[in-house]
């Protein structure tokens, strides 16, 4: 034989249920020790857009697109895009934490290319002067003096692709879009 | 009446639990890639790449270069060589997982006996808008070839990534050989094939 719940029991039941909805996100927030809030904040930060000839500050450095050159491709109907970026170190310890960087190339249609891995031979053929420059994956700031560091990356794209934007990703920092 | 309702609720709960227990996918199924069924002869489209089979060859022995010299690879089964093409959709991808699923459900990984050159799947990254020829080589028991399925994915270990599953036609008689020689090609077509009936 069932006994109908009192109004006090019903009230407690609903208060507990609503409290649970608040308690679970709160537990995630507290349990992550600030990491979740920091991640959320980073996700909500808009990318930093740097127009041509400008430089953008991010992750302890100042980044500037020097050139984005189109060269003959290694396959039919393709082009190689050679990107050169200058980095001026402003806060070495912050920058050290943000490396390695990752550069990608996006065209007007939204297609995205990652840089070619191990581009040494192609760089030597394209422009011997930049062949010894570091890529994002090999960049270290130990070599930095007062002069800016030059980073080069090579992308293989279809010949008809255009309207490019370079996106620079660094750990713990919003992306920097170089136009 | 209340007792009857309680018993009914208990039975319903037991039936629901039994149903859930038997319909819940296993841990390996949850982690397995999402299948994208396709047929041979048509390009298979996933969200991240397109893959199509062009030609399939079957041979009793395979001759492939090793350290610049041709080397003969024999087998107690057959060599299945698949010539295909692949392209990234809207961002660069690497296809690193290929397997052959035989009619009995046995899975065979791509052969690693002939090295990793010659445009084999995984040796080159795919770029958006640039289709590339890719080669797949399997060493299979004869009874696992007919009615097999070709499985291709970016990686076999990423949960919820897509895997193309191409139901393969039987290999036509004119594509069955005693011996098949695989040689280095050029930059555009990384391999060339020579047949011996």
From TrEMBL, chain A:
Species of the source: Rhizobium meliloti (Ensifer meliloti)
Name the UniProt record assigns to this protein: DUF2125 domain-containing protein
From TrEMBL, chain B:
Domain of life of the source: Bacteria
The keyword Signal belongs to this UniProt entry's keyword annotation: yes
Keywords recorded for this protein, A-Z: Signal
Range of residues in the leader sequence: 1-28
Name under which the protein is recorded: Uncharacterized protein
Originating organism: Rhizobium meliloti
């Amino acid at each position: 034989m069932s006994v109908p719940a009192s109004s006090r029991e019903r009230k407690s039941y609903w208060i507990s249920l609503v409290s649970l909805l608040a308690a679970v996100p709160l537990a995630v927030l507290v349990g992550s020790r600030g990491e979740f809030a920091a991640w959320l904040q980073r996700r909500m930060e808009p990318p930093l857009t740097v127009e041509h000839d400008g430089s953008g500050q991010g992750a302890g450095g100042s980044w500037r697109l020097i050139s984005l050159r189109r060269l003959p491709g290694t396959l039919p109907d393709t082009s190689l895009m050679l990107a050169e970026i200058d980095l001026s170190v402003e806060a070495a310890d912050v920058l050290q934490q943000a490396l390695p960087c990752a550069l990608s190339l996006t065209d007007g249609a939204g297609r995205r290319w990652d840089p070619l891995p191990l581009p040494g031979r192609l760089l030597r053929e394209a422009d011997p002067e930049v062949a010894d420059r570091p890529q994002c994956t090999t960049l270290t700031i130990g070599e930095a003096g007062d002069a800016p560091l030059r980073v080069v990356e090579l992308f293989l794209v279809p010949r008809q692709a255009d309207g490019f934007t370079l996106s620079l990703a660094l750990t713990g920092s919003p992306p920097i879009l170089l136009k | 009446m209340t007792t009857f309702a309680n018993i009914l609720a208990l039975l319903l709960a037991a039936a629901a639990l039994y149903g859930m227990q038997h319909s819940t996918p296993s841990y390996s199924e949850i982690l397995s890639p999402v299948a994208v069924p396709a047929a041979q002869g048509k390009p298979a489209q996933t969200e991240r790449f397109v893959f199509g089979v062009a030609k399939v060859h079957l041979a009793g022995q395979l001759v492939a270069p090793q350290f610049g010299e041709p080397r003969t690879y024999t087998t107690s089964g057959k060599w299945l060589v698949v010539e295909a093409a692949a392209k990234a959709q809207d961002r660069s991808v690497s296809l690193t997982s290929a397997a052959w699923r035989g009619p009995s459900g046995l899975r065979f990984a791509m052969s690693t006996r002939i090295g990793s050159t010659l445009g084999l799947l995984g040796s080159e990254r795919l770029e958006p808008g640039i289709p590339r020829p890719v080669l797949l080589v399997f060493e299979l028991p004869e009874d696992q070839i007919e009615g097999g399925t070709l499985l291709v994915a970016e990686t076999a270990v990423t949960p919820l990534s897509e895997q193309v599953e191409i139901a393969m036609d039987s290999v036509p008689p004119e594509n069955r050989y005693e011996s098949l020689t695989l040689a280095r090609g050029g930059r555009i077509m990384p391999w060339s094939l020579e047949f011996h009936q």
